[in-house]
Design goal:
The chain is mostly helical. The protein folds into 2 domains: 13-137, no CATH class; 144-286, no CATH class. 57% of the residues lie in helices and 3% in strands. The protein contains 12 helices and 4 strands. The protein has helices at 6-24, 27-37, 43-52, 69-82, 90-99, 127-135, 147-166, 185-193, 204-216, 218-226, 244-260, 264-285; strands at 114-115, 118-119, 230-231, 240-241. A two-stranded antiparallel ribbon has the order 1-2. A hairpin with an 8-residue loop joins strand 3 and strand 4 (240-241). Helix 3 (43-52) packs across helix 5 (90-99) and helix 10 (218-226) packs across helix 12. It is globular and about 60 Å long.
Length: 286
């Protein structure tokens, strides 16, 4: 089978069609899906059930001592979040925050258990790369994407923003915690306010994604600026800092878009984002 051939594309489509059924068969999926679908399901119970799925024998020197279990947790979390509107994601965010408070011990060493180099569960192994795979799968400047794919991506962004808002952050620590994805918003702001690539104005999707960051992670983004937080500082690389000038540019870009946007849903998100920005700025200056 040749890469890019008709047969190759058909095989890729078959894999995509089978993918939901595969993920939905995971026990991790069933726990998290029940948490979202059942209004009486508790976060505490979901975490306890998830912890019980870890292999009974944790005495091992293998780098991936938990097998696919962490990946299945966060793949399930992200797939469910993609199908869940932002207002229904609160328990998923609480689940991650609660899971992170559980530290396991490697019975072979007596030391905190690590999986692929990450502490279990305090460093949330597999969350980062699983989220990155989905986050990088969509280009919001592409006008040809189907609506359901865009909706799933928007729901993913809302989850990442809400996780970022809920993360415990030390603004002086150059290491970014596993729940904090706020720096990823810089891509959204670039695509919305410096679109390039033949786009004289941003697409509605780019505006919606930028707005979602500013609705659900407003306080975190503002605090990143207020405390001069540095991202990606390594060796001779001074890293990147979010600045008040950037904030003003985002606010100006949304204000301009608000006067020209003719899509009701996008306009609603823009209006909400501007309101959140004004509120947090007023609190910060008070």
């Amino acid at each position: 089978m040749t890469l890019g051939s008709h047969e190759w594309f058909q095989a890729q489509q078959r894999a995509r069609d089978a993918y939901p059924a595969l993920v939905e068969g995971y026990p991790e999926w069933k726990i998290l899906n029940t948490l979202v679908e059942n209004p009486n399901a508790s976060v505490t119970n979901a975490v306890e059930q998830m912890l019980s799925l870890a292999p009974a024998e944790l005495a091992s020197e293998r780098p991936a001592v938990l097998g696919d279990h962490p990946y299945h947790i966060f793949l399930s979390l992200i797939e469910i979040a993609k199908r869940t509107p932002p207002e229904g994601q609160a328990k998923l965010v609480q689940f991650v925050a609660r899971l992170q408070k559980n530290a396991l011990i490697n019975e072979a060493t007596g030391q905190p258990l690590r999986h692929e180099g990450y502490l279990v569960w305090t460093q949330l192994p597999a969350l980062g790369y699983t989220a990155a795979d989905e986050w990088g799968s969509i280009v919001v400047l592409d006008d040809s994407l189907p609506p359901d794919q865009l909706r799933h991506y928007e729901n993913l962004i809302a989850l990442l923003a809400q996780l970022s808002a809920a993360a415990d952050v030390d603004y002086n620590d150059p290491v970014v915690g596993e729940m904090d994805f706020s720096f990823w918003s810089m891509r959204a702001f670039k695509e919305a306010f410096t679109p390039g690539e033949g786009h004289l104005v941003p697409t509605n999707e780019a505006l919606r994604v930028a707005s979602l960051w500013l609705i659900y992670a407003t306080d975190r983004l503002w605090a990143n600026i207020k405390y001069g937080r540095v991202f990606g500082r390594r060796g001779n690389d001074p890293g990147t800092v979010m600045t008040a000038e950037m904030w003003d540019k985002w606010q100006h870009g949304l204000s301009v878009a608000k006067t020209t946007c003719n899509d009701e849903e996008t306009l609603g998100l823009i209006t909400s984002a501007l309101r959140h920005m004004e509120q947090v700025a007023m609190q910060g200056s008070g």
